[in-house]
TrEMBL record:
PANTHER family in alphabetical order: VACUOLAR PROTEIN SORTING-ASSOCIATED PROTEIN 51 HOMOLOG
GO terms, biological process: endocytic recycling; Golgi organization; Golgi vesicle transport; lipid transport; protein transport; retrograde transport, endosome to Golgi
UniProt entry keywords in alphabetical sequence: Coiled coil, Golgi apparatus, Lipid transport, Protein transport, Transport
GO cellular component, one term: GARP complex
Organism: Phlebiopsis gigantea (strain 11061_1 CR5-6) (White-rot fungus)
Protein name, entry field: Vacuolar protein sorting-associated protein 51 homolog
Length: 131
C-alpha cells in the first residue's frame, strides 16, 4: 500500500509537470541496473565507495567530492525552487477560492432579491389574469 501511494504520487507529479506517467526514464542514456551509476535505481553506495576509494588517487577523490557537493547543492536548490513554486501556487489557489467565496456570497443576496422580484411579478401576473 505505501509503495502504491508513493508510485501514485510520483505519477501525479510527473503528469502535472508533463513528464508522462510511469517510472522515470534513465538519465543520460545510462543503464538502469548499474550499481555503480549514481542515477540508477540499483545504485549500491557501499560498493561504489569501496571501488572509488581503492582505485582513485587523492586528487581524483577530491575532484569527485567537489562534483558531489556541487550536485548536492544543485539538487537542494531545485528542491527549494519546487517547494517555493508549489507554495506560491497554493497561496494563489487560496486567494482565488476566497475571491470566489466572496462573490458567491454577494450572489446569494442578489438571488434572494431576484427571487422576491419574480414572486411579486408572478403575484401581479396572477392578479391581472383574474381581473
Amino acid at each position: 500500500p505505501a509503495g502504491a501511494q508513493k508510485t501514485r504520487a510520483r505519477d501525479l507529479l510527473r503528469k502535472h509537470y508533463g513528464l508522462g506517467v510511469g517510472p522515470p526514464a534513465p538519465l543520460h542514456g545510462k543503464g538502469v541496473a548499474d550499481p555503480m551509476d549514481l542515477d540508477s535505481t540499483a545504485f549500491d553506495a557501499k560498493a561504489y565507495y569501496e571501488q572509488l576509494i581503492t582505485t582513485s588517487s587523492l586528487p581524483t577523490l577530491i575532484r569527485k567530492e567537489n562534483e558531489l557537493l556541487n550536485d548536492i547543492r544543485e539538487l537542494d536548490s531545485e528542491r527549494q525552487s519546487l517547494v517555493y513554486n508549489h507554495h506560491h501556487e497554493l497561496i494563489a489557489a487560496s486567494d482565488t477560492i476566497a475571491a470566489m467565496k466572496a462573490r458567491a456570497e454577494n450572489l446569494d443576496a442578489e438571488m434572494d432579491l431576484l427571487k422576491a422580484a419574480f414572486s411579486e411579478i408572478s403575484r401581479l401576473s396572477a392578479e391581472v389574469a383574474v381581473e
